[in-house]
């Protein structure tokens, strides 16, 4: 999803935009590397960043690349509210 966003930005606004992508690492792993100082920056979605900021408060959003898009979470109804609590 992030690569398609970057391709669209390159086509529409920033013809000199260049990036490297990794199929070996997840968004979470890339953000953790930024938090650990192993990467200078990465592109991530707001939901993943917000969740990881609880563990790595030093993570900060520099700027938004796209407008916000609505996100809907569907959860199984059962007695365990831990996932719901983690998303708040």
UniProtKB/TrEMBL annotation:
This protein's name: Lytic transglycosylase F
Tree of life domain: Bacteria
